[in-house]
């Protein structure tokens, strides 16, 4: 049987890690991998997470199964953090293996019950198209962002959604757009909410970077306006970045509706789809998040840690923008964009030269992870980028 299979290409981002690791230069710089790093280049376990893990180690009395939908207290606390308490909607959650697992279940649900069509603005996180394609959705793409001008193409987004059919799904990044860092303005969120409500579209909102953009509440303001406006919505949450628990595979999918019965029906479908795939989600990361969010002290410490990760990102963005300013007229956009990523207008050959001659690693798309920069690297990186961008 295995003979009949074609061997699959490596994921380009994972292949990039291999290339970076094999480079013996001591001053190499990794702007590729999408994890937060501190100024020493580490991705540390947060203090609040360590404290929660200690508590769990001391108090956890069983490793028996939890529940098909996962940890209900975790789900309630996470929904309060993301959706807030004012939406006037009913949300039914299912804990998932990471945000990816949440997107996969959402995609399965859309394939099962919706029009099977999803509108996706490009560029986007590459795994979006991968996941939606794997469940057989008909993915219709439109331009979200223009790389040379670093502009969000809002007219193109509105055109796609104005032409969408009732019940079509539309993927929306809640904040810190991956890979561009460019988001909607408050006015654009309002227009988006209006077209989604008027056309009766289903927003599938991907929230993977809450707290990395403008603030913990600010980063979900647009999301909340959409769920208030839309008759039904799906919200896929990843805890990987905000809690720094990437490998624990922690997230949730929330079905949001006007009635408890509708939300519960959606949840019962999500649970049965999970059951025939991986049965139940891993517990540890969700138990950590529950422990952090349910303790005033740990929650406060986590917020301080998240705020300082955001401050570091904003500081790096400003420094890089300043250092590029005398060679690239769009440099101020780097400081305006939010979260970990920006997408630079570089040719593939430029990216390969940066790797070969300067030991600076990024995917061929030109996406850079701002958190991969150390303060001391910025002048050197800007000096080699300027002639390529200007
Ligand atoms: C936009 C976006 N959504 C979802 C995810 C999924 O994250 P995870 O499955 O690691 O929780 C990522 C991860 O990089 C992402 O960038």
From TrEMBL:
Coiled-coil intervals, chain numbering: 299-326
Question: Which co-factor is required?
Answer: pyridoxal 5'-phosphate
Q: Which domain of life is it from?
A: Bacteria
Aminotransferase class I/classII large domain sequence ranges: 26-384
Instruction: Cite the entry's keywords alphabetically.
Output: Aminotransferase, Coiled coil, Pyridoxal phosphate, Transferase
Q: Which GO terms describe its biological process?
A: L-phenylalanine biosynthetic process from chorismate via phenylpyruvate
Gene Ontology MF terms: identical protein binding; L-aspartate:2-oxoglutarate aminotransferase activity; L-tyrosine-2-oxoglutarate transaminase activity; pyridoxal phosphate binding
* InterPro entries found in the cross-reference section: Aminotransferase_I/II_large, Asp_trans, PyrdxlP-dep_Trfase, PyrdxlP-dep_Trfase_major, PyrdxlP-dep_Trfase_small
Pfam families assigned? Aminotran_1_2
* GO CC aspect terms: cytosol
Its quaternary organisation is:
Homodimer.
Which family is annotated? Belongs to the class-I pyridoxal-phosphate-dependent aminotransferase family.
What name does UniProt use for this protein? Aspartate/tyrosine/aromatic aminotransferase
């Amino acid at each position: 049987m295995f003979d009949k299979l074609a061997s699959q290409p490596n994921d380009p981002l994972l292949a990039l890690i291999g290339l970076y690791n094999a480079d013996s230069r001591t001053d190499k710089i990794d702007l590729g991998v999408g994890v937060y790093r501190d100024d020493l280049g580490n991705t540390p376990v947060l203090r609040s997470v360590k404290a929660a893990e200690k508590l769990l180690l001391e108090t956890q009395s069983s490793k028996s199964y939890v529940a098909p939908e996962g940890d209900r207290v975790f789900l309630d606390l996470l929904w309060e953090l993301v959706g807030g308490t004012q939406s006037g909607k009913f949300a039914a959650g299912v804990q998932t293996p990471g945000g990816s697992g949440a997107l996969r279940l959402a995609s399965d649900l859309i394939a099962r019950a919706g029009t099977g069509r999803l509108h996706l603005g490009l560029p986007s996180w590459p795994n979006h198209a991968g996941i939606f394609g794997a469940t057989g959705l008909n993915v219709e793409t439109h331009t979200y962002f223009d790389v040379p001008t670093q502009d969000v193409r809002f007219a193109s987004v509105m055109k796609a959604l104005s032409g969408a059919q009732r019940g079509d799904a539309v993927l929306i990044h809640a904040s810190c757009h991956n890979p561009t860092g460019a988001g909607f303005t408050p006015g654009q969120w309002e227009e988006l909410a209006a077209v989604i409500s008027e056309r009766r579209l289903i927003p599938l909102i991907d929230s993977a970077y809450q707290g990395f953009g403008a603030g913990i509440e600010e980063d979900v303001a647009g999301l909340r306006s959409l769920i208030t406006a839309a008759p039904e919505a799906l919200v896929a949450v990843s805890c990987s970045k905000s809690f720094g628990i990437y490998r624990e595979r922690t997230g949730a999918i929330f079905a949001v509706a006007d009635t408890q019965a509708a939300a519960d029906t959606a949840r019962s479908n999500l649970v049965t789809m999970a059951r025939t795939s991986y049965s139940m989600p891993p517990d540890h990361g969700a138990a950590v998040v529950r422990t952090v969010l349910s303790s005033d002290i740990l929650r406060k410490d986590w917020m301080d840690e998240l705020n300082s990760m955001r401050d570091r990102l904003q500081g790096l963005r400003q420094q890089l923008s300043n250092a590029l300013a005398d060679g690239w007229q769009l440099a101020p956009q780097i400081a305006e964009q939010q979260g970990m990523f920006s997408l630079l207008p570089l040719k593939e050959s430029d990216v390969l030269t940066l790797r070969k001659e300067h030991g600076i690693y990024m995917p061929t798309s030109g996406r850079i992870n701002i958190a991969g920069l150390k303060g001391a690297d910025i002048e050197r990186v800007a000096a080699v980028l300027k002639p390529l961008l200007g």
